[in-house]
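Subject: sequence -> structure tokens, single chain

Hey, anyone have a minute? Need the predicted structure for the following. Not urgent.
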Amino acid sequence: YAELLREYIAENLTIKQVDFFNNVKIFSDAVVNNTIFILENTVPENNYQVKRFLHNGLFTEIQEINSLNQYEYKGKVFRQFVVNDNFADVTYLEDICYCSKAMVLHSESGEFKKDDLISQVETNIHIHKYIDGENLVREFTIDKIRYLEWGTSRVPNNISRATIPELYNYPKILFGMTSFPTYDRGIDERDGFYVPDSVRICVRWDDVYKVRRLEKEKRQMYELSKKRQKLLGD
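Reply:
Had a minute. Here:
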């Protein structure tokens, strides 16, 4: 949602420095990794290199990472991870996976909010492993697992958005909107994490095709999964 602002800044102001704070609590109530930048009110020169620094754990742990040419990379200088290589014969993730934001876990009527559904320990109603975007602290690293209420009068029937609940049991890629990716091996391998809308899920199309009730839905998800899973076979 801030892409246009980033591009405007990159084209009209000189970006002196960008600092990425991974798992550093700058603001006690924030659940994101913060980015702080220093700007100068001048039009950038074509060869200007933006200095970039990474802070891990503590403010004193500072690592200089690759500088980027502001004219060439524009708004991408605000991203910690930038792919510099040009790849040929690319297969897009959406071609092999159904990718979507995950569950919206509050009630539209105001009966309950997300935090009301989560327990620190497994109980007879908190039966599914649950992680938030903030728990994806590094690539393929989860720092905390909680448990989500499920199969009650509230969940999943009365939450705002359940996505396709069956998909959470399958192997999938998970990545936070402002955090890191991980691979969920599925419930058969003792994973099967349930996640909120701060996390995106990517499930193989051939696994989506296994959810046969989708055949009766108007959004034609079943037919799309049928076509895509054939491509996987090819």
